[in-house]
Design goal:
The complex is a heterodimer of chains A (about 475) and B (about 120). Chain A has about 475 residues and is mainly alpha-helical. Chain A has 19 helices and 4 strands. Chain A has helices at about 5-20, 30-50, 65-95, 100-115, 120-140, 145-175, 180-190, 195-210, 220-225, 230-255, 260-285, 290-310, 310-340, 355-360, 360-375, 380-395, 400-425, 435-455, 455-465, and strands at about 55-60, 65, 340, 430-435. In chain A, a hairpin with a 4-residue loop joins β1 (about 55-60) and β2 (about 65). The chains are: A mainly alpha (about 475), B mainly alpha (about 120). The interface between A and B is small, with 6 and 7 residues.
Chain lengths: ~475, ~120
């Protein structure tokens, strides 16, 4: 009961939002307050939970609480809270209403929590679908905007398809082992792995690679990220991705751990392709949302590196990189949201011209976020990449690690186009600015990026001292 | 594998009966078309436009979704009711929570005016 208390609180807050209409309190401010209150209550409940030991099975072994799940839940709570702040101005300007929006975000977060803490294919899949169904609606939340509708449709059709592939893979795994439990699966896997298991494993891998937007299953990402409302784009690039990576880690590291030789070729190939394609495609983008979308595809490749490594450093890298990525990518999107022009303000690379003279602090913040995304020492992104590449080299994946480091350099190239525009280009566009919630989000993200870049030990000590995943 | 063969045979029979019915009427039917006969059936009214040009109310969709929700609820209620004796108080509370969540959805739809035809 206590293990899923955060999820219960979030679901209760989500349902409460739907009932606000009943007492005629359906106002944007009330909705924001209830949603942030629900998130704070859930985070508090999670912080106060003291299980007798990490990784005990609860609810017949369907969920567990281990350090990885504990840590990533905070990451997704942070993502949802920051996205709520970012949405305040944007959603009100569009006149779309905060109540349903906040309710959907909270229910998506419930799905993410179950995706993170599940040790059973069935509850994992239900969590995934809860998250995905709310996400499809959120992608199309900007009613009346054609490209938002297009994003929702593409996301829905491709997402449903990939879920079907994943589900079929799960059914084949069940056929091979006779259990849906991830920890049991590791024990019952036939040795040497049979064809039934291999087919299931490949299908599960395809489904999960789609969910984390890895090449070659990335084609939906740029269109969905560009078309969705910008706060939701920020949400997609960290929340569902972090949750999906938790499940990815759990399935492949825990359940399929004994057959690492079989899947490491598959995931290694996907990892290298993702890093290369994501970062190279980002170079030619003129739309910042699209550029960040391709860069987030590249980042998924970096995280896959840690999954591939199969060691403590790799797993720590996955968690820490996602944590650092929360601040960096949400911060970058909040700067995009800060700029407001008549049509899709802040989305063109040219909108950033001369930003350092108009809003020097915001430009500095963007610089910090971009440096963290590149992985420059002193930022949180560096620590994440340090563990990812270190873990990959320890695990013997030298070539993917070298390619990863090269691709980090490539990412510096296209991010510096933005920096050059902000600091060197002569002033050009007329932009307005949005209000304090966005600025607050920018401030939180800058603080997080620098703080956890300079003092990573505050977090890494926790991550390195205990076994991260329940086995 | 042997145990699945009856299922396969069952599936084949299921498919072949309707196909056979369609085939029989293809051979036996009397075909004397005239323009009035080939028109789309519109309850006796003359056909106005192409079918795709019509707009139908989005409310049908909402009603359909609500129907599915309560349909699934019923499917879930039957096995619960049968084994309520063994589930005891815990089972009762679980179901009350489940129904409460569904009722929230229903109340929301009702207050948003999804069920009014105006």
């Amino acid at each position: 009961m206590t293990v899923i208390l955060p999820a219960i609180l979030l679901a209760a807050a989500g349902l409460l939002l739907l009932l606000l209409r009943l007492v005629n309190l359906k106002r944007d401010g009330v909705a924001l307050g209830v949603a942030l209150g629900g998130l704070a209550a859930a985070a508090l409940a999670l912080a106060l939970i003291r299980p007798p030991a990490w990784g005990l099975p609860y609810f017949d072994g369907t969920v567990t609480l281990d350090p990885a799940g504990f840590f990533l839940q905070f990451v997704v709570f942070g993502a949802t809270a920051l996205v709520l702040l970012l949405s305040w101005d944007y959603i009100r300007e569009g006149g779309w209403g905060m109540t349903e929006y906040a309710a959907l975000l909270l229910l998506a977060t419930v799905g993410m929590v179950f995706l993170i803490i599940s040790t059973d294919f069935l509850s994992l899949y239900v969590g995934l679908e809860t998250m995905a169904l709310a996400s499809y609606v959120l992608a199309g939340y900007a009613r009346g905007e054609g490209r938002s509708f297009e994003a929702a449709m593409k996301y829905f059709v491709l997402g449903a398809f990939s879920s079907a592939v994943l589900l079929y893979g799960i059914s084949l795994i069940y056929g091979a082992t006779g259990t849906l439990n991830l920890i049991e699966t590791a024990r019952l896997l036939p040795t040497p792995p049979g064809k039934l298991y291999l087919a299931g494993m490949v299908m599960v891998a395809c489904g999960m690679l789609f969910k984390v937007a890895a090449v070659p299953f990335h084609l939906w990402t740029p269109d969905v990220y560009q078309g969705a409302p910008t706060p939701i784009t920020a949400f997609f690039s960290i929340g569902p991705k972090a949750a999906a990576f938790a499940a990815f880690l759990r399935i492949f590291s825990t359940a399929f751990g004994t057959t690492a030789r079989e899947w490491s070729i598959l995931l290694g190939l996907a990892c290298v392709l993702t890093m290369v394609a994501g970062n190279l495609m980002a170079i030619v983008q003129d739309n910042v949302k699209r550029m960040l979308a391709y860069s987030s595809i590249g980042s998924a490749g970096f995280v896959l590196l840690g999954l591939l490594a199969q060691n403590t450093w790799g797993a720590t890298g996955v968690l820490y990189y996602l944590f650092a990525y929360l601040f960096a990518i949400t911060g970058a999107f909040s700067v995009v949201l800060f700029l407001k022009t008549k049509e899709y303000g802040g989305e063109r690379v040219d909108d950033f011209r001369g930003l350092s003279r108009r809003h020097p602090w915001i430009a500095f913040a963007m610089l910090v976020f971009l440096l963290s995304l590149i992985g420059v020492p002193g930022t949180a992104g560096f620590v994440g990449k340090f563990f990812l590449f270190g873990g990959a080299i320890q695990g013997g994946f030298i070539l993917p690690a070298v390619i990863g480091i090269l691709m980090s350099a490539v990412s510096a190239w296209y991010f510096f186009r933005l920096v050059v525009n902000m600091y060197i280009a002569p002033e050009e566009p007329e932009t307005e600015r949005r209000g304090w919630p966005v600025v607050l989000a920018v401030g939180v993200c800058v603080a997080g990026t620098i703080l956890f870049g300079l003092w990573p030990m505050a977090v890494t000590r926790f991550l390195l001292e205990t076994p991260l995943l329940a086995r | 594998m042997d145990r699945y063969i009856p299922i396969l045979i069952f599936g084949l029979i299921c498919c072949s009966i309707p196909l056979a019915m369609l085939a029989i009427q293809l051979f036996l039917q009397v075909r004397r078309p005239n323009p009035a006969k080939t028109e789309a059936y519109e309850c006796g009214n003359p056909v106005k436009k192409e079918a795709l040009a019509y707009r139908f109310s989005i409310r049908y969709l909402v009603i359909a979704i609500l129907f599915v929700i309560f349909d699934v609820e019923t499917v879930f209620l039957f096995p619960w009711a049968v084994s309520l004796g063994r589930l005891g108080l815990f089972g009762l509370i679980e179901m009350v929570v489940f129904l409460a969540i569904l009722v929230v959805g229903y109340v929301y739809a009702y207050r948003e005016g999804a069920l009014t035809w105006a």
